[in-house]
Design brief:
Pfam families: NAGLU, NAGLU_N. InterPro entries: Hex-like_dom2 (IPR029018), NAGLU (IPR007781), NAGLU_N (IPR024240), NAGLU_tim-barrel (IPR024733). This is Alpha-N-acetylglucosaminidase tim-barrel domain-containing protein. This protein is mainly alpha-helical and 327 residues long. The chain folds into two domains: 124 residues, 2-Layer Sandwich (Chitobiase, domain 2), CATH 3.30.379; 141 residues, Glycosidases (TIM Barrel, Alpha-Beta Barrel). It has twelve helices and eleven strands. The strands form five sheets. A three-stranded antiparallel β-sheet has the order 8-10-9, with no helix packed on it. Strands 1-4 form a two-stranded parallel sheet. It is elongated. The termini are far apart. 35% of the residues are buried.
């Protein structure tokens, strides 16, 4: 490879651990093959990786060469995430830098030399760094309300950069799902806006309304929230796909608006017990759960996933009943 500048050669190889491969887990292999087929083209992932470097260390934007090539040959990285995490590996182990969240030190890059003075990796064939597992999963169902509730695109872009630098390739992407739910329930299941105003919680409490802990608390959500969060989610997903990540999108868990019980009176819908934080007040507590054996469960779940599939390939996450009595 002829480069216009002296290369600091780092090979970042991703492989399935021998323990997994040897076990012959066909489902895992098929999923990885599907992800490989459906990821953004290498040129898009390389450009996204260069974007991370430009935001992180703009003065060194021409000092690194990122390349994704076939896994059949010697490689620099198999996805955009892998080459960005390879950059992080070099900055950490050869430049003594530290990249973390702002609250835990932030990006400490003062030890990184200027362009032209970066330390060389003293191995003619580069350094091979293997991922110990196929996927690095990130977040949980309540992170969106503990940390992300008020984030704008600038803050999300910074977080996605951090994910890529840390090698995260399977992040939750829950932003804006209320806009999807509203479309599904209105268009497919004849619900009104007022029915759904009582269903969704306020912005800082969405995680708990999604899991069936409460309903309506802190709401109703204004139209501007639905619109802006959906726009934000599209940006989040676009960047994740560009970097070769597989976003984990929300799936249906059975939590339904109260009005569904009256629209579908024969459906197996149960009113749940109280969650300790809302003191048995029926205005906020005791949400409704649709039985997973009911055919309506499959119908709603399918409609919700199909509405999201317009974005690209994903995995799915369903979470229900956190700290709550079933009856």
């Amino acid at each position: 490879m002829n480069l216009p500048f002296p290369a600091i050669f780092i090979i970042f190889i991703i492989s399935i651990p021998s323990s997994i491969a040897g076990a012959g887990v066909d489902a895992v292999s098929r999923l990885i093959e599907t992800q490989d087929r459906e990821r953004a083209p290498p040129s898009v992932q390389e450009a996204a990786a260069r974007g991370v470097l430009l935001r992180l260390l703009p003065s060194l934007s021409s000092s690194f060469h990122f390349q994704i090539i076939s896994k059949e040959y010697m490689i620099e990285g198999t996805t955009g995430v892998d080459i960005v995490s390879g950059l992080h590996w070099y900055l950490k182990h050869w430049c003594g830098s530290h990249i973390s969240w702002d609250k835990t030190g932030g990006s400490q890059l003062f030890s990184v030399p200027n362009a032209g003075f970066l330390p060389r990796v003293p191995h003619s064939g580069g350094v091979s760094v293997q991922r110990p597992i196929p996927w690095s999963y990130y977040q949980n169902a309540v992170t969106s309300s503990y940390s992300f509730a008020w984030w704008d695109w600038e803050r999300w872009e910074k977080e996605i950069d951090w994910m890529a630098l840390q090698g995260v390739n399977l992040p939750l992407a829950f932003t804006g799902q209320e806009a999807i739910w509203r479309k599904v329930f209105q268009e497919k299941f004849n619900m009104s806006i007022s029915d759904l105003d009582d269903f969704f919680g306020g912005p800082a409490f969405l995680a708990w309304s999604r899991m069936g802990n409460l309903h309506g608390w802190g709401g109703p959500l204004p139209q501007s929230w639905f619109d802006n969060q959906l726009i934000l989610q599209k940006k989040i997903l676009a960047r994740m796909y560009e970097l070769g990540m597989t976003p984990v999108l929300p799936a249906f868990s059975g939590n339904v608006p109260a009005a569904l019980k009256y629209i579908f009176p024969s459906a197996k819908i149960t009113r749940l017990g109280n969650w300790f934080s809302v003191k048995n007040d029926l205005k906020w507590c005791c949400t409704y759960l649709l039985d997973a054996t009911d055919s309506l469960f499959i119908e709603i779940g399918k409609a919700f996933i199909e509405k999201q599939l317009q974005g690209g390939q994903s995995c799915w996450h369903s979470k229900m009943l956190r700290e709550i009595d079933l009856y």
